[in-house]
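Annual report, structural modelling task.

Input specification for the iron/sulfur cluster complex:
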Amino acid sequence: MVLIDQGRCIGCGICIPYCPRNAIKLDPNLKKAYIVAEECVECGTCARVVMCPRDAIVGVVEGYVREVRAHFSDPYTLHPSTGIPGRGTEEMKTNDVTGRFKRGEVGFAIDIGRPLVGVTFAEISRFIKVLNTVGVMWEKANPILYLLKGGLEMGEFPEELNNVKLHSAVLEFKVPIAKVRDVIEKLKYLAETTDTVFSLGIISRVDDDFTIPVIEVLRELGLEVSPWAKTNVGLGRPLVE
Ligand code: SF4
Ligand code: SF4
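The model returned the following structure:
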């Protein structure tokens, strides 16, 4: 993990506000900074950004559990399951090329833990299990799902990961438009019962008449759609018809 070399640190406190997890503490007696291992998500910010006057912050990530934290929290780390940096997912941004979402389907990306709250694997597991009851179609290339044991139906992670906290995790899936109500109902339940935060991204193809059918469904459910959408226009040759 990222460490503060106690022999070098002079306790100036410069590094403390840089940590997005508030994981760097100052020992008032020793007058040294230290990192709380359980709170550190291995984002690497302190080691990368802080101009420590004593060069005391050592960016060493060792061991499976610490590496998993880094894969989902450090944008400079290449995720081994997908070969993509950051949280290891292309999310839904490349639909023009990949054709993940067909007409009549609606995609969801749930970004759990941001901003600054974080999320444990145990809580991600709970999200997966609740959404499984709707019968969602999970995005198979999503790196979180590579870590499941016993398949998607079980929604369980290895025991050693359950209490591990990540900066954030993105879950991606799609459903036929007829199931959007069921998904929103479950997400409202999760919003009321979770101890973290999440935001919701929805993807839908625009119809030939330039309408977007899912907007009306969401309005009926009391959800106002932001006009600030992100539109990615495929610049490559589509991989699907
Ligand atoms: S910036 Fe460096 S010297 Fe100052 S408290 Fe942090 S680790 Fe210690
Ligand atoms: S690696 Fe990130 S989370 Fe860990 S102490 Fe440094 S800034 Fe904080």
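Residues 4, 9-15, 33, 50, 52-54, 56-57 surround iron/sulfur cluster (ligand 1) (CB under 6 Å).
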